[in-house]
UniProtKB/TrEMBL annotation:
Signal peptide: none
Bias type Acidic residues, positions: 141-153, 644-665
Biased composition (Low complexity): 721-743, 929-947
One Pfam entry name: Hid1
PANTHER family: PROTEIN HID1
UniProt biased composition (Polar residues): 670-681
Cross-referenced InterPro entries: Hid-1/Ecm30
GO cellular component, one term: Golgi medial cisterna
Name assigned to this protein: High-temperature-induced dauer-formation protein
Biased composition annotated in UniProt, kind: Gly residues: 744-762
Region listing for Disordered, in residue ranges: 141-161, 593-762, 922-953
């Protein structure tokens, strides 16, 4: 449809859709929807949001017939023996059917009142005309068993009962057809020889499950993009629900996709998406210019492949509403069954190549090349998913010491995003990814390797004059995340401290600077203004003290010691003694004195070692709801699933029975709480935006060894995780309705900022003597006080007055035999997923997808979810932008836009003066804008009409 008069014909037909009621199913009019458009831009520009909403709201029966017509045409083309023959069964028709469905479905999902109609129309068993009864030129018509909600009994469209057969629900057949088309000969994969099946589940790229090079064409890749975009659209009803409702409510389309029992289908889709993603090379010679000047079709395919892969991997299948049973997510299951080292190496190399792009491009002379790949956060999410559900992959990463590379990469993205309020979700994800790896013993041991290439890192992550090990670099970077985040990252302080706790027993020879950073954290966390700010901050202090104890105790008996840390502790012994002697009264007096000094000096900022003042925000209401080990958030039991038998196809999974027992064991009863655990009030203001995976208190190796194989949160299992480490820590045993959170580290040591009373959080908490005495005597100070007493007697006072001790002093510390210091039981701190945390995680993924779709559609009118009423996150409008190097506007662009604009604004409806603004948010929906969410920030031009903003989650 290259000429403007053809566009005009199509536009008139779209108006007819809403102005004429009950258009017959056999009317030739319907063929215009797949015969006239020539590109996605035609469908998205001429079929405007206003047109779709008007048809939906005033002529739902026509919208229903349109959906039936295009799906029937889609099904008939898929089964046509000559498809994709241009003259007989053209692929253009099929692609236009896909585009129309992609365009229309979001506007059905956004209308909550259509949920019952959607359930009936898409998911009820149908009566379908058999192919033998349908003539070649007819529109096949599928009819649901029940009448629609508007009272239309389908009599105008009904065909004779003869020649009809019962068929699966429309949505199921549509999904099955789209999956088949992803592997269709001559359409998305290479043409098969005569006599071969036209649907050949051939993996798209070499890599996992395929060792041979697979030929492809640009046309095939473009067709894959269109199909994946529709599959994402079918899965996107989550965008129109609040985040808290996602895990329980579920998405019917995703449930059907993820529970597909056909192993060949699942593995072909899984391996195709995975290989396409990790084989992408952003460092090719084209990419720097490509990022600046034109779109890379390969990157678009990779983006859609990665997003659909993550959607199916992350999806927690809800319980069956009738039986209450939970089906297995086979995509997540088979990802967890990967076991070949060559596959792991392929995945690791690919993800490293993508994530490493901004680190390698710092010396490039090409402007813009140092920027991260657009989907780098999604690659981090994929890495986290694999480390959670595949214990073999986790071991491979750590045992081959590739964990060093990923630690640096994860810290780079965390530190790069820490000050960007729109990317806080990336930082949270990085923190929990570090915690996921840190539960492995070898992870902590391998961190003792010297980090000699720190000077080659980008400035955002480089530590000035750094000399030390990977453990030093990790701890100092965690310190930077805590102290430089301006209280935006309080939700992950327990996770960051858990990382230090998990490696504490294994790190050796900590540097002077690292030791100083740990003591600075202790100084801030032990200040009265922090401890009395709410009823849970003492848990964070307890967690840090436990880490210091483990570092001292376990490294005095094996290998090199940590004399610098011991020296720093002894040098700051007054801080520890002050904590030991702290009372509620003198704590309040100290806060008053500090506030008075600030007032007298006119100071407005915190002292250098302090972590910022307490802010009044919803985050500051976060507090634990149940007892946990040393400040860790409470656990929620997640439901694991049984494995299924499998053969050796694709060499995925080893012994069929290897993990059979992992998912059927009952959850263990929590063991006795440690002294540092104290019940806290539930937070009434908790929101999904603040939700993160919940911390589980540490459990000893001995206790872990007595647990059933695979039990406990070491599986990092959400619902349907099917692989785990061989042992795990106990659950916190808390209700699913409670979401734990740590007390904020706002005002850490800062004397408060005047919010609330003395030691109060400003939200009603008032410390009492009973509360104070419930935790202060139980702080684990014995080891540190014993070390201070014995070491201070051996070192002259003048030697403790210098920042850096002499080698002789350090040697004396190493040689001393400490009496009464025995290694405590090593406890590993893990986390589990709650319903709210899953809602946060899924909403972050969908904000990535929403933002990326706007990038893909930049400069065009194509944008699947633009101008729809998003409820999952808040969408903000962005200022209009003129021509730029990334979005040039030449004469051809101007002419094309002018033609489309004129046609779109034609008024063909008599007295109705409202024009149709092509590509704008005409009609009652929310305008597309930036996804203002933890996950990311994307922008588009503001709409041409004034539309209500979407509701915030």
């Amino acid at each position: 449809m290259g000429a403007s008069d053809s566009k005009l014909v199509f536009k008139k037909g779209i108006f007819r859709l809403s102005e004429e009621r009950n258009i017959r199913a056999d009317d030739p009019y319907w063929t215009s929807f797949w015969e006239l458009p020539e590109s996605p831009e035609d469908v998205f520009s001429l079929f405007s949001p206003a047109d779709i909403r008007r048809t939906r709201d005033s002529a739902l029966e026509n919208l229903e017939t349109l959906l039936l017509a295009v799906t029937s045409r889609l099904f008939s083309l898929r089964h046509h023996p000559s498809f994709p023959e241009q003259d007989i069964a053209p692929e253009r028709d099929l692609l236009n059917c896909v585009r129309v469905l992609t365009r229309v479905l979001p506007y059905i999902y956004e209308r909550e009142s259509l949920q019952a109609w959607e359930e009936r129309f898409f998911w009820s068993v149908r009566r379908k005309r058999s192919r033998s009864a349908a003539s070649a030129g007819e529109v096949l018509f599928d009819e649901a068993d029940t009448a629609d909600q508007n009272g239309d009994d389908g009599s105008d469209r009904a065909a004779p009962q003869d020649g009809f057969e019962e068929a699966k629900p429309l949505a199921e057949e549509l999904i099955d057809t789209l999956i088949d088309l992803l592997f269709f000969s001559g359409f998305t994969v290479a043409r098969q020889p005569p006599g071969k099946p036209r649907v050949s589940y051939t993996i798209w790229q070499s890599g996992v499950g395929c060792n041979t090079t697979v030929p492809t064409t640009k046309e095939s890749e473009s067709n894959r993009c269109e199909l994946l975009r529709l599959l994402l659209t079918l899965s996107s009803s989550s965008l129109y629900r609040p985040a808290g409702a996602l895990p329980a409510h579920g998405v019917r389309s995703l449930t059907y996709i993820c529970t597909c029992p056909d192993k060949q289908v699942v593995l072909s889709v899984l391996c195709s998406l995975l290989n396409t993603t990790v084989k992408y090379n952003p460092a090719s010679w084209r990419v720097p210019y490509n990022n600046l000047v034109f779109k890379d079709p390969k990157q678009i395919l990779v983006t859609y492949s990665l997003h659909f892969l993550l959607v199916v991997l992350l999806y927690p299948i809800p319980p069956d509403p009738v039986t209450g049973s939970i089906s297995k997510n086979y995509y997540r299951h088979f990802l967890g069954r990967l076991h070949r080292p060559t596959d792991f190496q392929f995945i690791v190399d690919g993800m490293t190549r993508i994530l490493n792009q901004p680190l390698q491009a710092t010396t490039s002379y090409i402007p813009g090349t140092q920027s991260s790949v657009k989907f780098a956060p999604e690659i981090i999410m994929l890495f986290w998913e694999i480390t959670q559900c595949n214990k073999r992959f986790r071991s491979f990463i750590i045992d081959t010491q590739r964990a060093h590379d990923f630690v640096i990469l994860i810290l780079f993205y965390a530190l790069e995003c820490k000050n960007d309020s729109t990317r806080q979700g990336v930082v949270r994800m990085c923190a929990f990814l570090l915690q996921t790896m840190s539960v492995e013993k070898n992870f902590g041991i391998n961190l003792n390797k010297m980090f000699d290439t720190q000077d080659t890192l980008p400035p955002a992550i480089r530590i000035q004059n750094f000399r030390g090990t990977y453990a030093d670099f990790l701890i100092q970077s965690i310190y930077s995340l805590i102290t430089a985040s301006q209280s935006r990252l309080t939700a992950i302080y327990p996770a960051l401290l858990a990382v230090i706790n998990n490696i504490a027993a294994y790190v050796e020879g900590l540097s002077a600077r690292t030791s100083s950073r740990l003591i600075q954290l202790f100084s801030s966390m032990s200040s009265p203004s922090f401890l009395l700010a709410n009823d849970s901050n003492h848990n964070l202090l307890c967690s840090l003290l436990e880490a210091l104890n483990a570092t001292i105790e376990h490294q005095y008996s094996i290998g090199p010691e940590n004399p610098q840390l011991v020296y720093t502790i002894v040098r700051n012994r007054k801080r520890f003694e002050s904590l030991r002697n702290l009372t509620l009264d003198n704590g309040r007096e100290e806060i008053e004195r500090r506030m008075q000094r600030r007032k007298d000096s006119g100071a407005t900022g915190d002292e250098p070692a302090e972590l910022g003042s307490r802010r009044s925000s919803v985050d500051s209401l976060r507090s634990p709801t149940t007892s946990h080990h040393h400040g860790q958030q409470h656990a929620r039991p997640s439901q694991a699933l049984s494995d299924v038998a499998e053969d050796d196809a694709f060499a995925i999974g080893g012994d069929d029975d290897e993990d059979e027992s992992d998912d059927d064991e009952p959850r263990p009863t929590p063991s006795q709480s440690s002294p540092c655990e104290n019940p806290s009030r539930a937070s009434p203001a908790m929101s999904v935006e603040d939700a993160v995976p919940t911390q589980v208190r540490g459990m000893s190796e001995k206790a872990r060894g007595k647990m059933p194989a695979g039990a406990g949160p070491f599986s990092f299992s959400r619902q349907n995780s099917t692989t785990s480490l061989g042992s795990g820590s106990a659950h916190g045993g808390s209700s699913d309705n409670n979401l734990a959170g740590s007390g904020r580290l706002d005002g850490l040591g800062g004397g408060g900022s005047g919010t609330g009373g003395l030691g109060g959080s400003g939200h009603g908490f008032e410390p009492t003597v009973q509360w104070f005495e419930s935790w202060l005597p139980e702080l684990p100070l014995h080891t540190i006080l014993a070390v201070m007493q014995q070491i201070s007697a051996l070192i002259p006072r003048d030697e403790l007055a210098v920042d850096y001790p002499s080698p002789d002093t350090l040697q004396r510390i190493q040689d001393v035999h400490l009496a009464g210091i025995e290694p405590s039981t090593i406890r590993v701190h893990s986390f589990e997923w709650s319903a709210l945390a899953l809602g946060w995680y899924e909403s972050m993924l969908w904000s990535f997808i929403f933002s990326s779709e706007m990038q893909v559609a930049k400069g065009t009118v194509v944008g699947v979810w633009n101008s729809t009423a998003i409820k999952l996150f808040r969408v903000q409008e962005a200022a209009a932008q003129g021509p730029s190097l990334t979005s040039p506007r030449g004469a051809v662009d101007a002419v094309g836009s002018n033609i489309v604009s004129r046609i779109g604004q034609i008024n063909l409806r008599g007295n109705n003066a409202a024009g149709v603004a092509l590509g704008s948010a005409a009609g009652g929906g929310a305008a597309g804008g930036s996804a203002n969410h933890d996950a990311g920030n994307a922008t588009r031009n503001p709409p041409a009409t004034n539309n209500p903003a979407p509701p915030s989650s």
